[in-house]
Amino acid sequence: MMNRAILLGRLVRDPELRTTQNGTSVCSFTLAIDRRFKNQY
Description:
The protein is an all-beta fold and 41 residues long. The chain has no helices and four strands. β2 (16-19) and β3 form a beta hairpin. The relative contact order is 0.32.
């Protein structure tokens, strides 16, 4: 099974790729966004 996501933003630091004990690859990263809202109170 494969999940797909589209994320827009800037990487804050280098992604960290690691492998779990059962062989599954996991990637962790921090994403920064600058999003403005029109109707802020």
